[in-house]
Specification:
The chain has 647 residues and is of the alpha+beta class. 38% of the residues lie in helices and 19% in strands. The strands form 7 sheets. Strands 3-2-1-12-13-7 form a 6-stranded parallel beta sheet, with helices on both faces. It binds ligand ME8.
């Protein structure tokens, strides 16, 4: 039996309601868990809440209720959101659970008995927000180096964990286990951190200052430092939450997913705690990047905190799950721009996957009485072979590679899936079943084409399930596939042609209605109305009047510079004949600023201004390419004057 797949998210503070950042890590863990269940692995997926500490005590005091009551209220908010987002966690831990508290006390006692915890007087700079002391050299101008809030000098007697003793062992572990901290850049960060002498860790807080915590088993005047309490959740949960509780079977964890903000606490505090307890370390700690909104940090004071409930209500759970994991490589920081979200819904989801399903079902209903026909071998061509090899390598190579928990690359997995979506749509365009249907001599070919289109969707249904479970279920229903996704459907390799034909398709609603772009996108209050039209090939055509609404003009690029923190965006100043405009263009992966200055290009001149990474764009440049820009639209023989109309 392979080792069970044990995956965790951080346990989130209950000082406030959950936002997009919390949803991100939890959705990522959910995709991993669903993927492993499909493969037939035993999975334990744990999430939960961090309920002790100063922040929670303060939030409860502000609300005028007891800390426990506050925690209970917030717990409901998190659980409701996880349900709405389709999170399939197997366990939900709360650090106020009596069973968890008992384990924390047991660990503390063990370390104390082994002289790995000692008491000492300590004077230092204390940051209330971060609940930690800083040394003189850390503090900048009386401010916390982490959160920049003012610190105060405090002298108090506390208990310390001999973390410094484990520095070399941890360095050796890091060296010997290349996939312990992922991605590589984060591993280097931890290695760098460990070059400086590691200090001992204060693991207590006097009750006179903070009462909301787990009492130290060896001194009733103190509670446990919130991080020592919280990190233990990953092991304590195994003693009482799985259907068959067992630390032996489930530990060490396969992967702890965390945000980069809490990498040190996991890589250093948690690892050294485990070493002191003589427990093996988790296989991988994967630290993902940070979401900002239009280039800015999310914060209440800026009013730009993204509410996942609102997002799901407007755009749907699966569109939200898709966007978060598709837009940005998992280890890197990302910017949440509504233009991109809506763009992805319309292009990838509605025009891509939704269109492929709806046109295939329509074609099968129209030309095959609603039943998926069997293929006729002699009527197959290279096009079918290409579909088959792409689909099989998607399920058997690309997804297993990109979803490996020590290399997670959700965006690449989704790119591979959408490669097949695109191929499927091109296949229908090229084979034109509606033309084949007119000629009785082509009936074997028509049958073959309809079969392969349906088979493509069967593979897509399995591939999309971990990311978009509701969509996969709806696709299976419309295709008449008897799939029960709680079973290990990918335990054995899926072969092309071993389960598609003969099923009866059912026309259903469009998977993803198109979304109209809001007039002025506002991250905190997005406004979007779903249009009723379904994205079929016929009704996605436009007439000449529609096209004439788009004002295309010649422009000359005067200056160009990169938008900070973006490898894709260039900020251009362009001459439009009668005026100068600023345009932000997503061409930065293909061109550097020096490549484009002086070029004569074509721009959409009557686009409403929008902000990209916080920079205003007053138009759009035309370029060829889908995912990646292949080239700017320019002129070969002439250089028309800026401002000239293009039609
Ligand atoms: O740190 N972008 O809890 P927390 C991406 N209780 N991810 C984000 C994010 C953003 N803008 N904001 C939050 C704690 N996250 C401790 C953890 S674990 C033993 C204790 C996600 O509520 C990301 O996973 O502050 C980050 O690490 C976590 O929420 C922090 O959640």
């Amino acid at each position: 039996m392979p080792q069970p797949f044990y995956i965790t998210t951080p346990i989130y503070y209950v000082n406030d309601v959950p936002h997009v950042g919390h949803a991100y890590t939890t959705i990522a863990a959910d995709v991993q868990a669903r993927w492993h269940r499909l493969l037939g692995h035993e999975v334990f997926f744990l999430t939960g809440l961090d309920e002790h500490g100063q922040k929670v005590q303060q939030a409860a005091a502000k609300a005028g209720i007891s800390p426990q009551e506050h925690c209970d209220r917030l717990t409901l908010q998190f659980q409701t959101l996880w349900q709405k987002l389709g999170i399939s966690n197997d366990g939900f831990i709360r650090t106020t659970d009596a069973r968890h508290q008992a384990v924390v006390q047991r660990f503390l006692q063990e370390l104390y008995d082994n002289q790995l915890i000692y008491r000492a007087e300590y004077t230092g700079w204390y940051c209330t927000f971060d609940e930690r002391f800083w040394t003189e050299k850390d503090v900048n101008d009386g401010r916390c180096p982490d959160c920049q809030r003012p610190v105060e000098q405090l002298s108090e007697s506390n208990y310390f964990f001999r973390m410094s003793q484990f520095q070399q062992r941890l360095l050796d572990h890091l060296e010997a286990n290349p996939t312990f901290i992922r991605p590589e850049s984060r591993r280097n960060e931890v290695a760098g951190f460990l070059q400086k002498p590691l200090e001992d860790l204060s693991i207590s807080r006097p009750k006179s200052r903070l009462s909301w915590g787990i009492e130290l088993p060896f001194d009733a005047d103190y509670v446990t430092y919130v991080w020592f309490d919280a990190l233990v959740n990953y092991m304590s949960a195994l003693e009482y939450l799985p259907s068959q509780p067992s630390v032996e079977r489930l530990w060490p964890a396969t992967v702890h997913l965390v945000g980069k903000d809490i990498l040190t606490t996991h890589a250093v505090y948690w690892s050294t705690m485990l070493m002191a307890l003589e427990v093996p370390l988790p296989h991988t700690i994967f630290a993902h990047g940070w979401w900002t909104v239009d280039g800015e940090k999310m914060s209440k004071s800026r009013g730009n905190v993204l509410d996942p409930h609102a997002m799901v209500d407007q755009f749907g759970t699966d569109a939200f799950r898709y966007f978060l994991l598709r837009e940005v490589p998992f280890g890197q920081d990302g910017d949440f721009a509504f233009e991109s979200f809506i763009g992805r819904i319309n292009s990838d989801l509605a025009n891509g996957l939704g269109n492929l399903l709806s046109r295939t079902i329509t074609l099968i209903q129209r030309f095959s009485d609603g039943n998926v026909p069997a293929p006729v071998a002699s009527a197959s061509t290279e096009l079918e072979t290409e579909l088959q090899t792409t689909a099989e390598s998607l399920l058997h190579d690309h997804l297993p590679t990109h979803l490996r928990s020590d290399r997670i690359a959700f965006n690449r997995a989704l790119e591979a899936i959408w490669g097949l979506v695109q191929l499927g749509n091109q296949y229908i365009d090229k084979t034109a079943p509606w033309v084949l249907a007119k000629d009785p001599a082509c009936s074997a070919r028509l049958q073959t084409v309809l079969f392969h289109a349906a088979e493509t969707l069967r593979f897509l249904c399995l591939a999309t399930y971990p990311f978009m479970p509701d969509t996969a279920r709806e696709m299976a229903r419309q295709l008449g596939l008897p799939y029960n996704f709680s079973q290990a459907l990918l335990k054995d390799p899926i072969a092309w042609g071993d389960g598609g034909s003969g099923t009866t398709v059912v026309k259903g609603k469009a998977l993803f209605p198109r979304v109209d772009a809001p007039a002025t996108p506002s991250p905190a209050q997005p406004q979007a109305g779903a249009s009723a039209s379904s994205p079929t090939d016929e009704n996605s055509r436009i007439n000449i009047q529609d096209f004439q609404k788009v004002e295309l003009k010649v422009a000359k690029i005067l200056t160009a510079e990169r938008v900070p923190k973006s490898n894709k965006l260039l900020k251009l100043q362009v001459d439009l004949g009668t005026e100068q405009r600023q345009i932000v263009a997503g061409i930065g992966k293909k061109y550097g600023p020096e490549d484009v200055v002086g070029k004569t290009i074509v721009v959409v001149a009557n686009l409403k201004p929008a902000k990209l990474m916080g920079v205003e764009s007053q138009g759009m440049v035309l370029a060829a390419g889908d995912e990646d820009v292949e080239g700017l639209v320019t002129f070969k023989d002439v250089d028309p004057q800026p401002g000239t109309k293009v039609k």
